[in-house]
Specification:
With about 425 residues, this protein is an alpha/beta fold. It has 14 helices and 15 strands. The protein has a domain of about 120 residues: NAD(P)-binding Rossmann-like Domain (Rossmann fold, 3-Layer(aba) Sandwich). The longest helix is centred in the C-terminal third of the chain and has 24 residues. About 50% of the residues are buried.
């Protein structure tokens, strides 16, 4: 039996260049044979940079290859559904970026095809596999579970609208779905009701109730600045608590069987400086905040120079500092990207139960999202259907060695195209 699963990648844009391409080629249990994108230049660059054997511009050509066993879909959200369906009908297993689909109805379409095809599908809710949240889940399980949680997820200057051209009010679909899935995963329970209030487009607070009695608040905003950590979580347990700061530091309070501070190495990219990874492991949140502040201050200076046209030499220096080999500001934390795709491959090789989000989990996140949008529109609490049996038993965690596959990477290619900082 082969020790690696042969993959094809559909979509060679920003998320693939920042995450999936380097992760697929360094994952111990994956062989990336083919990359596909409508843009032939992106295909050519990906093949050159990562030594990928084949490249195509039609997904039909990739899916027709009998050697390809699994497909990773990293395209625009609005084409996840037809591509996932086409892949499963071609006999391929599928790892698809979040959200599984933009509506519950589309998720159900995928579920029907999956049931007929017998293929496995995982949704890219990668935070489940982040070392910080794997540890948080183990701590919660050993201390009576999470009773009251707060999660903040924020981006700089409404990045969804400015950089990606997303419609106002849709950040909750494309980004906050991550949080809905993670909270269900950590609590082992279903959301039974949600209330969502917005201060303005893409600036919301939500209150969620769970079937097991837990409650959670979520603050989502697209109007923060880059010097602020993107994500934080606080959880009150049966007695005691823990916090997670941007996946680089976990602190416990009142839990004598766990040390009070846990720090996690950052995520590294073969084309970027990796010093942040060691800094995070040694200094945790403080290093992350200082790096974000440096990035923010340089970005602010660069924006001012671009606006005035002043000091071209300094402008070029700042562009080089921020755009070539510096860590990508929202991708330098280990949020579980590499662990997720390699875990999926291991599950396929050994026919193991998978810790990743399934089509049912993707549907659940879409239903919570839909309920949140309805609540925001109507100004009332929206109740969801009764929870399904069996979810509470899905509490297995995968122990991750951050010193293993997360640090394996190909040698730096000096001629690689620059990548800009971004979001997931």
């Amino acid at each position: 039996m082969s020790e690696r699963v042969t993959f094809g990648l559909i979509g060679a844009g920003k998320i693939s260049r920042s995450q999936h391409l380097p992760n697929l080629v360094r994952a111990p249990h994956i062989h990336l044979k083919t990359v596909c994108d409508l843009n032939a230049d992106l295909v050519h660059e990906a093949r050159r940079q990562y030594d990928i054997p084949h490249g195509v511009t039609r997904h039909e050509d990739l899916l027709a290859d009998p050697d390809i066993e699994a497909v990773l879909i990293a395209t625009r959200d609005d084409v996840h559904v037809p591509l996932a369906i086409a892949a499963m009908e071609a006999g391929k297993h599928v790892y698809v970026e979040k959200p599984l689909a933009e509506t519950p109805e589309e998720c159900r379409r995928i579920i029907r095809v999956q049931e007929k095809s017998g293929r496995r599908l995982a949704v890219g809710f990668n935070r489940r596999m982040a070392p910080a949240y794997q540890l948080a889940k183990r701590i919660m399980a050993s201390h009576g579970g999470a009773r009251n949680l707060h999660y903040r997820i924020s981006d700089a200057y409404f990045i969804w609208g400015k950089e990606f051209g997303a419609a106002p009010g849709t950040r909750i679909i494309h980004e906050v779905c991550h949080v809905f899935d993670l909270l269900c995963y950590l609590t082992g329970s279903e959301v039974t009701s949600i209330y969502c209030a917005a201060a303005r487009d893409d600036d919301e607070s939500m209150l969620l109730r769970f079937a097991n009695g837990a409650v959670a608040s979520v603050l989502s905003s697209g109007y923060a600045t880059y010097d602020m950590p993107k994500e934080t979580m606080e959880a009150i347990l049966e007695l005691g608590s823990l916090t997670v700061s941007d996946c680089v530091e976990l602190r416990t309070f009142g839990l004598d069987d766990y040390q009070p501070v846990h720090r996690f190495a950052g995520h590294v990219h073969p084309e970027r400086d990796a010093i942040h990874s060691e800094l995070f492991e040694k200094m945790g949140e403080e290093a992350m905040i200082q790096l974000r502040r440096i990035y923010y201050e340089k970005s602010t200076r660069l924006d001012a120079l671009r606006a005035t046209g002043g000091n071209p030499a300094l402008r070029r220096q700042l562009e080089d500092d921020l755009g070539h080999h510096a860590p990508m500001i929202n991708y330098m934390m280990d949020k579980g990207w590499l662990h997720a795709v390699d875990h999926f491959a291991q599950c396929l090789l050994k026919d193991l139960p998978c810790e990743l989000a399934t089509t049912e989990d993707g549907l659940r996140a879409a239903r919570i999202t839909q309920a949140a949008i309805q609540s925001r529109r109507e100004g009332r609490v929206v109740r969801l259907e009764e929870p399904k049996a069996g979810l509470a038993s899905q509490t297995r965690t995968v122990r991750i060695d951050a010193s293993d596959s997360a640090r394996r990477m190909p040698a730096r290619t000096k001629s690689a195209a620059p990548l800009s900082g971004g979001i997931l």
